[in-house]
């Protein structure tokens, strides 16, 4: 037996020794940097910052694909499809268009998820920047600026969420249920547990934190950055703050923020960042980085939101190579107060084939024309909006018809007029201040048509006694089509009934999965 | 050593005794009873002596025997030994029988073989002969019904889609549920691996090269595979050469594939009526008209082929000398699917060689080289150019062709994004594309090369001890290609808009090295103590890398025929990545049996795995089993029971095995996330350094019974798999914004328990006729037993998509949705039961103040007046059914009459529910699209009793509750399938040898039909067309194959 054991050992030992010198187990990823070193150099910090912007362009949709959620395209498309100024041509946006969403509908679940994915990436990066500054990897100033960019995006995302999933601020001065406000990094199981202890704050609490973020951003952002437009600058922070205060009904605040960007008298050129209107209404769309494009989300040929998301795919006419899914509605097109001779009607719109075939047409926008590369930026803040925000606040704050409001309104409108000398508004154009405000609100619909701003105006004015739309307004029937629908001054025949403000469908439901995983989050009533 | 000396002495003495006897000469020729071919190299020995000889090349021998009382012993590897008393004969022409169940006597186990009678685990053997004549691109597709406890689902008719194999149930929620596949001792790369087509890596193994398959099921049998054993193990052994006897054979078959069942859609006339009724009910202008030619297109005819050709050829040679044996084969197989673009072509070669350098040392090498070409198409379940999704929706009153278009197909010109509407006022909604065109112009292809090489050296320093070192390299290279024309379909566009042609190439490269070093030692102590030891070490390294190129806005479609061409695309992008992983393991097994009566086994494996944190990397997986052959006991033998039950073995086992993880789930990582063309990185995963693998506690008790001297065999097992530490990407709240909305954790457990029963044997056995039958039955119940907690409160369920739940107390992925209570006969609205028992009806018709698509209280099923507004909430959903088959099995009959044999195999499966999304989304849509014929039963006027609601254009999502389950589209998955009929005729060998002057040794002709019929209440294409979630969503029909073939032996 002894010999036997010896022989086994002699045979087995060399074999075992040969193979155990391998290091099969010490592997690490080649396709990702670990958290230990993601902020270990100044360059990596900057990469992480751009990663947060990327999350604004394309956080994963519910199926993991890129469809432009939240700000690469989706906020614009959803913002329009919730309103009455577009027609949903096929089934693509039908659920949003007809307000038949529920707690599992992909669009609103996807939007909710994408907004918070952006927010958490911002929060994780803010931690990383702070630590990098402590370790002298980047300067304190750089860390503050990066943090400011992240907090700008965080504010933008929370404001989008509170506009879609909560009642407007003006309903009860913000005492309705808001959305969760995430202001710390969630990068571990214990951080997730922390989240689960935080109930929904009120809308007012949301606004307070949004404004605090934007104040920080304004203080720490430079007036210009390279590349421009696609990164947040000081002017972007101010403009967004102005928009937020408009939602809050803080007219004085809007005026104060506006004053930082709009001189007292024409020419209106921003002292911060030198933003100004382009000469033509088409200017911001023929040049993604125009003098007017304060903040847009970048898309380009190599990284865009794809055929199922991109603005040119969805809004463009099918005969131009787009999908022809979101058409302009006669509700706005036929409105005679939008002058027939307005340059925007020809520069930015055309009659073209829709998704349902070559012979079926609607009016489509030409604001997004990169039909093969899908490289149109997603416009978020234009200087025109700053002017109209100020105009509205001035008009509302004044006791009579505000001249400054008219001047600001005209700045935007006149460039589109065929004959500004005769068609421009004067004080005489308005019977009272309400008429002026109405004209400004209409101008917003016209100027920002197909830029997704319709819903936020419907939402913020939903309880305004004078300018509410009665909830979700009546709309044209899904897939209403044909050239005959369109005639300036022609009949407007919306057959899809309005949904009253009081109806639960006015705001989106909190997704089921949120409710399941985070029971402390209260569902919106009715869902 | 003492024993050896004694034996030598005896032999010597015996030899000496013989010398004194009278001698005479006996001659003859030895043949094989299989085919009467002469057997060279047969050992012929006078029993009890050392006198012997070997047959020559023609099987002839001549031997001198002492006297008439001598006995000649004829022996040959792989044949039954034969003893013949010489008597007065001077010519003896014996015929040797093949050891038919040579392998059935043993069980192939991990790192060795065991005597079947001593095997105490649970394994099912699948004899290669069972599928030898079947037309199949890969063996996984023929496994269904062959083994108890093994549930095999062939989803759809794609010839290159791997079968889904589940051994003893679904054993994991998130991790792999596919068994470990081990070929000739080495775990091989398997799966559906090409990037643009379905492609089956197991198709690289030629089914004709397979000698034996053993499915290891219980803990004891699988424990030697440790952390990779939770989903079971399939051991495949390929053919080896037989010493001495060269044999060449050629197998060929040719056949035809057809769809077993197509979808039943509306014809043109019916479509016009239904489409216009949808529009009229919605107050919209009618759009559908018949054209003057009365065009009636069945779009399925445009994408499916009848009698798709299949053929398969294998040429093999095997044989060997005293020292060296070889098996080699060449194969060409072509399988055309029923969708015109679906095919698989395989070119496979194998060479298995073993050489004994001397009695201590053996070396060998097994290599297989394979190329597979796969063709496929857009199979997207909702894709506008999906082969099935589009054919179900395209308008039947429109022709696929249009002479005015340059291509001859019905495409609008010049705006080719849509079809010409024909006599309709609009084209098909959503612009589903002309499938007749897109399938013929868009390409989805893959060609794969595969080399699997194992080299081994085996040293046997002493009797019973074998040291074996095996090194294996498994290399897979896939080159995938996809192209879309710009004229119409997915790639539509012009140089100023749209995709304008698209081309994609991807190359992936997988490499797996495995190095095993192990020892097997057999030892008999005294008379009755048998010990069998296995111990060893194994290392595995995996490398996977890929890169891709895509181009769109192509300058000219000339450039997208076969490959991406540099510079031909205005927009070019590239992609790529790579991963590495590894295992390192030590393992050992100890078997002991006493007197062939009592058996115990213990095994252990320690696995290290690269995907876990260094401090959590190693796990230990033990297994134990015991067996008792009751039939060997004196009381049994003497009781008279042994007359009926000659073999009774009881066995029990327990083991803890694991399920591995992949990637680096313990790390928090930042991936590349560019912002446009500005480079960026962003957190891509939140890791958990505490992660461990899933553990599976497997329990099994069983009995093997041989009846009437093994004329019948019965096997029964009861098992429980308790799976714990399930790794779940535990969902995090969306509002936490964690990447993937989950963090992996070991939280959750599930249990599979079931019974397996197999009984078979010769029902009739006469001289010329035998009827052999086998029946098997498995019943497996799955239950989720625990999930994680949130803040101390146990989470009762996790949603898995819109249709399923993972819920404690329910089978995994229970289908979850609203309860449809029928159509309101007063107004045609669908009515649902809420959780509180009240009814909610969906308002289909428009009209204030009731908004279309809203839910309103119905005070009774047929109450026509809408009540208060209500809604269907998450809590109103019920558990509708188990998506996984619970019971399944097969009944196989073999009839043999002289040279004729007939096999009939029936297979059954059921106990599951199918949620028929094909019906919900495609066949019952409310768009300007075609429908299934079920829609003809729609509600039309008050008083109509039906389950199909009123038609209303544009309200399909609401009427059918798209994206959600409801009981209206839930159906039973029970079925009985006529799986195979195989008729074989073996030409009598004597006649054959005579006719061909010995050139052809054997000839068999056969005809067979596979998947000939299915009996089911399921209304879809096939009850096997289900995902793991029990969902059937626009899957290609199944294939019925009829083929004819021959086997020739030379």
Describe the structure.
The complex is a heterodimer of chains A (527) and B (1050). By secondary structure, chain A is mainly α. Chain A has 20 helices and 7 strands. Chain A is globular. Mean pLDDT of chain A is 93; it is low at 17-22. Chain B has 1050 residues and is mainly beta. Chain B is built from 10 helices and 59 strands. In chain B, a hairpin with a 2-residue loop joins strand 41 (789-790) and strand 42. The longest helix of chain B is centred in the first third of the chain and has 17 residues, at 2-18. The model of chain B is unreliable at 1-21 (pLDDT under 50). Strand 1 (32-34) of chain A pairs antiparallel with strand 33 of chain B.
Task: Provide a concise account of the structure shown.
The complex is a heterodimer of chains A (527) and B (1050). Helices cover 44% and strands 6% of the residues of chain A.
Write the topology of this structure.
The complex is a heterodimer of chains A (about 525) and B (about 1050).
Chain A: H1 2-20, E1 32-34, H2 42-58, H3 74-81, E2 86-88, H4 94-98, H5 106-134, H6 140-165, H7 189-195, H8 203-220, H9 234-248, H10 251-261, H11 283-286, E3 293-297, H12 311-315, E4 326-328, H13 330-333, H14 343-347, E5 349-354, E6 357-365, E7 378-382, H15 383-397, H16 403-414, H17 420-423, H18 433-447, H19 454-460, H20 512-517
Antiparallel strand pairs in A: 2-4, 3-7, 5-6
Helix pairs in contact in A: 2-5, 2-6, 5-6, 6-8, 8-9, 9-10, 9-15, 10-15, 15-16, 15-18, 16-18
Chain B: H1 2-18, E1 24-29, E2 31-32, E3 43-46, E4 52-54, E5 60-65, E6 71-75, E7 82-85, E8 95-96, E9 106-109, E10 112-115, E11 123-127, E12 150-153, E13 164-167, E14 180-183, E15 186-187, E16 210-216, H2 219-222, E17 233-238, E18 247-259, H3 268-281, H4 299-303, E19 308-320, E20 324-336, E21 343-358, E22 361-376, H5 387-391, H6 435-441, E23 443-459, E24 465-484, E25 493-494, E26 497-498, E27 502-525, E28 529-554, E29 569-594, E30 598-609, E31 618-629, H7 634-639, E32 645-659, E33 669-672, E34 681-685, E35 694-707, E36 712-724, E37 727-731, E38 742-746, E39 749-765, E40 769-786, E41 789-790, E42 793-794, E43 797-800, E44 804-807, E45 814-823, E46 830-833, E47 839-842, E48 855-858, E49 869-870, E50 878-881, E51 887-897, E52 900-910, E53 913-916, H8 917-923, H9 956-959, E54 965-966, E55 970-972, E56 975-986, H10 989-995, E57 1002-1016, E58 1031-1032, E59 1039-1049
Parallel strand pairs in B: 2-8, 14-17, 45-54, 53-58
Antiparallel strand pairs in B: 1-5, 3-4, 3-6, 6-7, 9-10, 11-16, 12-13, 14-15, 16-17, 18-19, 18-59, 19-20, 20-21, 21-22, 22-23, 23-24, 24-27, 25-26, 27-28, 28-29, 29-30, 30-31, 31-32, 32-35, 33-34, 35-36, 36-39, 37-38, 39-40, 40-51, 41-42, 43-44, 44-45, 45-46, 45-50, 46-47, 47-48, 48-49, 51-52, 52-56, ...
């Amino acid at each position: 037996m002894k010999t036997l054991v010896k022989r086994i050992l002699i045979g087995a030992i060399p074999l075992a020794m040969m193979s155990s010198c391998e290091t099969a187990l010490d592997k690490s990823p080649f396709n990702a940097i670990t958290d230990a070193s993601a902020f270990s150099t100044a360059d990596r910090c900057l990469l992480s910052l751009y990663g947060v912007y990327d999350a604004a362009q394309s956080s994963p949709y519910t199926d993991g694909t890129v469809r432009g959620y939240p700000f690469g395209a989706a906020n614009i498309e959803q913002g329009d499809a919730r309103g009455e100024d577009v027609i949903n041509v096929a089934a693509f946006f039908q659920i949003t268009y007809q307000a038949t969403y529920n707690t599992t509908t992909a669009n609103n679940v996807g939007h909710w998820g994408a907004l918070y994915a952006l927010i958490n990436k911002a929060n994780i990066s803010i931690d990383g920047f702070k630590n990098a500054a402590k370790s002298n990897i980047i300067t304190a100033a750089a860390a503050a600026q990066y943090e400011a960019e992240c907090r700008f995006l965080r504010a933008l995302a929370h404001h989008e969420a509170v506009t879609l999933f909560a009642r407007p601020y003006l309903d009860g001065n913000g005492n309705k249920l808001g959305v969760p406000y995430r202001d710390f990094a969630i990068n571990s199981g214990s951080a997730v547990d922390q989240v689960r202890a935080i109930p929904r704050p009120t809308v007012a609490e949301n606004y307070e934190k949004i404004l605090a973020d934007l104040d920080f951003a304004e203080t720490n952002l430079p007036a210009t950055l390279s590349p421009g437009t696609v990164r947040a600058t000081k002017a972007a922070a101010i403009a967004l703050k102005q928009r937020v205060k408009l939602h809050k009904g803080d007219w004085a605040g809007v005026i104060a923020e506006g004053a930082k960007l709009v001189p007292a008298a024409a020419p209106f050129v921003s002292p911060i960042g030198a933003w100004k209107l382009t000469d033509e209404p088409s200017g911001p769309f023929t040049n993604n980085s125009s003098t007017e494009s304060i903040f847009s989300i970048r898309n380009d040929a190599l990284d865009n939101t794809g055929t199922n998301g991109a603005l040119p795919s969805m809004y463009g006419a099918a005969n131009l190579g787009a999908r022809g899914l979101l058409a302009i509605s006669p509700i706005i097109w036929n409105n005679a107060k939008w002058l027939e001779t307005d340059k925007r009607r020809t520069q930015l719109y055309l009659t073209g084939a829709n998704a349902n075939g070559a012979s079926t047409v609607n009016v489509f926008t030409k604001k997004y024309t990169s039909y093969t590369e899908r490289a149109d930026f997603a416009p978020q803040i234009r200087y025109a909006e700053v002017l109209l925000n100020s105009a509205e606040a001035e008009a509302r704050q004044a006791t009579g018809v505000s001249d400054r409001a008219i001047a600001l309104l005209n700045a935007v409108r006149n460039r589109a007029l065929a004959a500004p000398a005769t068609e421009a508004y004067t004080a005489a154009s308005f019977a009272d201040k309400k008429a002026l405000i109405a004209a400004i609100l209409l101008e917003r619909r016209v100027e920002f048509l197909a830029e997704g701003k319709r819903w936020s105006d419907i939402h913020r004015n939903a309880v305004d006694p004078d300018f509410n739309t009665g909830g979700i307004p009546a709309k044209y029937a899904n897939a209403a089509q044909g050239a005959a629908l369109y005639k300036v001054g022609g009949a407007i025949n919306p057959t899809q009934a309005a949904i009253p403000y009081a109806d639960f469908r006015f705001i989106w439901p909190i997704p089921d999965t949120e409710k399941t995983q985070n029971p402390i989050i209260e569902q919106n009533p009715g869902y | 050593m003492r024993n050896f000396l004694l034996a030598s002495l005896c032999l010597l003495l015996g030899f000496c005794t013989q010398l004194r006897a009278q001698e005479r000469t006996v001659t003859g020729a030895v043949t094989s009873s299989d085919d009467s071919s002469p057997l060279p190299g047969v050992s012929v020995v006078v029993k009890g002596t050392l006198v012997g000889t070997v047959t020559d090349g023609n099987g002839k021998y001549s031997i001198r025997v002492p006297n008439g009382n001598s006995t000649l012993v004829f022996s040959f590897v792989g044949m039954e030994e034969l003893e013949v008393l010489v008597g007065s004969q001077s010519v003896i022409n014996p015929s040797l029988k093949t050891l038919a169940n040579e392998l059935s006597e043993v069980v192939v186990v991990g790192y060795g073989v065991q005597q079947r009678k001593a095997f105490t685990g649970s394994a099912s053997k699948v004899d290669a002969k069972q599928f030898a004549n079947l037309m199949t691109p890969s063996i996984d597709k023929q496994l269904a019904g062959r083994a108890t406890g093994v549930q095999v689902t062939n989803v759809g008719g794609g010839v290159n889609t791997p079968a889904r194999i589940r051994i003893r149930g679904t054993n994991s929620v998130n991790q792999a549920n596919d068994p470990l596949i081990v070929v000739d001792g080495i775990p091989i790369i398997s799966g559906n691996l090409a990037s643009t087509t379905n492609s089956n890596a197991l198709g690289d193994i030629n089914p004709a090269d397979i000698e034996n398959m053993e499915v290891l099921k219980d803990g004891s049998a699988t424990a030697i595979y440790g952390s990779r054993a939770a989903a079971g193990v399939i051991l495949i052994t390929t053919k080896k050469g037989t010493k001495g006897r060269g044999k060449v054979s050629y197998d060929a078959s040719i056949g035809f594939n057809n769809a077993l069942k197509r979808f039943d859609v509306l014809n043109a006339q019916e479509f016009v009526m239904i489409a216009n009724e949808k529009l009229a009910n919605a107050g919209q202008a009618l759009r559908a008209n018949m054209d003057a030619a009365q065009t009636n297109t069945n779009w399925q005819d445009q994408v499916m082929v009848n009698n798709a050709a299949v053929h398969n050829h294998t040429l093999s040679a095997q044989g060997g000398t005293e020292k060296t044996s070889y098996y080699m084969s060449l194969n060409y197989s072509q399988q055309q699917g029923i969708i015109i673009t679906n095919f698989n072509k395989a070119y496979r070669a194998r060479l298995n060689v073993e050489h004994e350098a001397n009695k201590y040392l053996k070396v060998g090498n097994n290599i297989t080289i394979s190329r597979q070409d796969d063709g496929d198409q857009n199979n997207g379940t909702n894709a506008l150019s999906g082969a099935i999704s589009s054919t179900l929706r395209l308008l039947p009153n429109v022709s696929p062709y249009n002479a005015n278009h340059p291509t001859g197909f019905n495409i609008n010109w010049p705006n080719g994004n849509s079809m010409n509407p024909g006599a309709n006022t609009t084209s098909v909604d959503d612009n589903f594309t002309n499938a007749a065109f897109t399938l013929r112009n868009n390409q989805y292809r893959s060609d794969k090369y595969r080399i699997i090489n194992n080299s081994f050296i085996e040293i046997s320093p002493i009797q019973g001890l074998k040291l074996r070192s095996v090194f294996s390299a498994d290399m897979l290279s896939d080159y995938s290609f996809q192209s879309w024309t710009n004229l119409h379909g997915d790639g539509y566009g012009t140089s100023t808009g749209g995709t304008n042609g698209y081309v994609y190439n991807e190359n992936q490269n997988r490499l797996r090295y495995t190095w095993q070093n192990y020892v097997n030692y057999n030892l008999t102590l005294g008379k009755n103590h048998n010990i069998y030891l296995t111990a060893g070490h194994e290392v595995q390294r995996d490398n996977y890398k890929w890169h891709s190129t895509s181009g769109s806005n192509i300058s000219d479609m000339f450039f997208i025929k076969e490959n991406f061409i540099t510079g031909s695309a205005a927009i070019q992008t590239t992609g790529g990545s790579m991963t590495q992983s590894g295992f390192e393991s030590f393992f050992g097994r100890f078997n002991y049996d006493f007197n062939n009566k009592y058996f115990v086994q213990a095994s252990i494996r320690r696995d290290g795995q690269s995907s876990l944190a260094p401090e959590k990397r190693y796990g230990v997986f033990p297994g134990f089993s015991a067996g008792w052959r009751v039939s060997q006991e004196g009381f049994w033998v003497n009781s008279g029971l042994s007359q009926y039950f000659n073999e009774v073995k009881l066995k029990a086992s327990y083991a803890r095995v694991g399920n591995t993880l992949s990637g680096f789930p313990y790390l928090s990582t930042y991936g590349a996330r560019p912002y446009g063309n500005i480079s960026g990185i962003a957190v891509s995963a939140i890791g958990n350094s505490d992660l461990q693998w899933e553990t599976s506690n497997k329990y099994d008790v069983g009995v093997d019974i041989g009846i009437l001297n093994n004329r019948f065999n019965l096997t029964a097992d009861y098992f429980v798999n308790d799976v714990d530490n399930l790794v779940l990407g535990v969902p995090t709240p969306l509002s936490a914004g964690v990447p993937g909305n989950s963090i992996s954790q070991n939280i959750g457990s599930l249990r599979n328990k079931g019974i397996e029963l197999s009984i078979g044997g010769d029902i009739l056995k006469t001289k010329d006729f035998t009827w052999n039958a086998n029946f098997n039955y498995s019943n497996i119940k799955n239950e989720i037993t625990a999930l994680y907690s949130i803040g101390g409160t146990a989470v009762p369920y996790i949603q898995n998509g819109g249709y399923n739940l993972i819920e404690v107390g329910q089978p995994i992925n229970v289908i979850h949705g609203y309860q449809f209570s029928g159509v309101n006969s007063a107004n045609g609205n669908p009515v649902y039961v809420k959780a509180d028992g009240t009814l909610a009806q969906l308002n289909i018709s428009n009209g204030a103040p009731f908004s279309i698509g809203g839910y309103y209280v119905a005070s009774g099923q047929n109450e026509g007046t809408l009540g208060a507004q209500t809604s269907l909430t998450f809590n109103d959903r019920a558990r509708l059914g188990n998506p996984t088959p619970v019971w399944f099995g097969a009944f196989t009959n073999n009839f043999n009459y002289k040279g004729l044999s007939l096999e009939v195999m029936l297979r059954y499966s059921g106990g599951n529910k199918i949620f028929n999304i094909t019906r919900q989304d495609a066949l019952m849509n409310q768009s300007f699209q075609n429908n299934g014929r079920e829609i003809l039963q729609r509600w039309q006027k008050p008083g109509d009793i039906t389950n199909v609601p009123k038609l209303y254009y544009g309200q399909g999502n609401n009427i059918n509750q798209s994206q959600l389950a409801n009981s209206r589209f839930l159906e039973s998955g029970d079925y009985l399938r006529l799986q195979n009929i195989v008729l074989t005729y073996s030409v009598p060998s004597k006649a054959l040898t005579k006719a061909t002057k010995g050139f052809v040794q054997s000839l068999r002709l056969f005809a067979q039909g596979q998947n000939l019929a299915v009996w089911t209440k399921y209304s879809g294409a096939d009850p096997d067309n289900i995902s793991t979630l029990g969902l059937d969503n626009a899957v290609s029909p199944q294939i019925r194959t009829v083929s004819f073939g021959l086997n020739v032996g030379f």
